Model the fold of this input.
Amino acid sequence: MTTASKESQYMALLQQLETSLKRGRYVRSHELATRTLRLAEKYVQSDSWKNAEEVMQWLENTADRLTKAAVSESAPSNVLKRLIKTVQEDFMTRKNKGKLHTISRLDSDAKVDYSEELPDLRSDILGAILDLSSELENGAESIAEDAEKHINANEVIMTIGRSRTVEAFLKRAAKVNKLEVIIVKCGPFYQGKDLAKILSKSKIKTTVVNDTAAFSLMSRVDKIVIGTHTVLANGGLKAIAGCHQILLTSKYFNVPVLVLAASYKLSPEYPFSAEMKITNRFVSPEELIDYKNGQMIDNVQVYAPVFDYVPPELVSLFIFNMGSHAPSYIHRLLHDTYTQG
Done:
């Protein structure tokens, strides 16, 4: 394949991904992360770069470009920023290969010249992308493996809406222990009904309730298990709308909250930083209001936000595909995952 054709491949993938983000033509953040990783792979395979500095600059610029296309979606930016850390580590490994004493800390005061061309750096980066791709593919399964450690026999579990990671987690737990699941519908999307159908097919006792019934049922609940869209740098969540009020209820009743999240959902952004001017996304309020009542519609404004911000004090434990951690440990995970500064 010629250099021009390789370059046109990754440019086409970039334009397609950017268009999908702008027009909202995607279903899950996992899909966005996978497509972003494929884009990075095509770029690294091309001859558009000569050294680590050029690769990192492209990754940073592309992360900014995709963020501007859809500011509420952090998965593409997270994947690319994680690759920047990987490129730095691969560069230092190659540069110091065979030396007895090396400086392994990338955040040291020593300035590193990443413009030096190193042999086999391309294969190292492609290998890292392959590893990350495997992590994306098996993330939900890896998280589900911890289900037996956290779900005991005869427990009542509450969840909100539908998360495929939570679905796999509960199915794995049900293979070992008998449990009951209460699913909050999560209006206005009511995805909880879809999860209920799936779990009932697996012979799991399931009850579907309206969002307003969560408080009255919370005294029966042993644990809350939810997925999330993004884990923010302070340990807070950007989760599906409705989560905040339900987790406030769990705090009142001292019910522990387990949050399941793949590593690509861990974001280095803080919820109220200058860089995150818009963190929410709004959809049509057609599920909230009857358009037949034209007189009322003319006199009101109806907003249908997709996400809630959940502060870290409402979360008991994060279960990632690389292990379980308290919200206070998020800063350490960020240090290990992303470049500092």
Q: What stands out?
A: The two ends are 38 Å apart (CA to CA).
